[in-house]
Design brief:
It is globular and about 50 Å long. The chain starts with a strand and ends in a 22-residue tail after the last helix. It folds into 2 domains: about 5-240 and about 280-305, Rossmann fold (3-Layer(aba) Sandwich), CATH 3.40.50.880; about 240-275, no CATH class. It is α/β, with parallel strands linked by helices and about 325 residues long. It contains 10 helices and 12 strands. Helix 6 links the parallel strand 6 and strand 7. The longest helix has 17 residues, at about 280-295. It is about 30% helix and about 25% strand.
Length: about 325
Amino acid sequence: MPLKIPDGLPASKILQKENIFCIESSAAKHQDIRAIRVLLLNLMPKKIETEIHILRMLSNSPLQVDVELLRISDRPSKHTPIEHMDNFYKDFSEVKENKYDGLIITGAPLGQVAFDDVSFWDDMKEIMDWSVNNVTSVLFLCWAVQAAMYHLYGVNKVILPKKISGVYPHRITNPLSPIVRGFDDVFNAPHSRYAEVPAAELEKLDDIELIADSEIAGPYVWGHRDGRHLFVTGHSEYEPDCLKDEYERDLEAGVNPEVPENYFLNDDPSQEPVVTWKSHGNLLFSNWLNYFVYQQTPFNPEEIGEVRHAFALNVN
């Protein structure tokens, strides 16, 4: 089934060249089908790049997914043309009366900033509170994980002694969770962050189930037992050069970054990156769409937030 995206979105041409089946909104109106509605709150500086990364991951599913783009505020983005933001992104005021099957909230380069000092923190809290009664399942990525754990669960992030940057092995701690169906016992995933949510704090929460972690990178995937929240601290959506671009950007800025671990061939930044995470990344997003969104959301969108099917992360 196709990925339904706004008319004229630049990502469309790129995805179609990759043989990813996309259909623009105007054409989709003529189809008699209940598409899965997914809202993407894009907090990353390079909006178009992140759109492409996320849309690629959402495309590997037999479901028709109707994707809408949401911005946190109408302030200009330094790395994205204002015309793109105005043409393709909606303000929260335009969507808050709607119901959505899924919501994805991306990371943001704010790991070292206290939440109350984030310029859009009040807006972020409003959207997270709204999602409780208007979205079937929310997928939080990287910084959004830290933000949600702080606001919704009262668990604050811990600033790390140094940035976690690289591709790390992970192990599954709950093999019966639907989100890791098809995963190997050990799998790789990229990380790029300055803070984490401590595993010890997760263990104190009765409604939270740890699903996968890493000896080096810490907790990687966990979720609410009824499927309403899924947390992923890494970047399985990253393309091959993402960590390389971040490393070179930091070099130019004089940050003197460490070379991303287990990423370049022979850990040599003059060599090409070695991609070892894409298969599990695709599984993660398709499993979320299937088990956490499609199989949990009511057929009548108006019942979202009111009706939930019996579900548990540890039920096979």
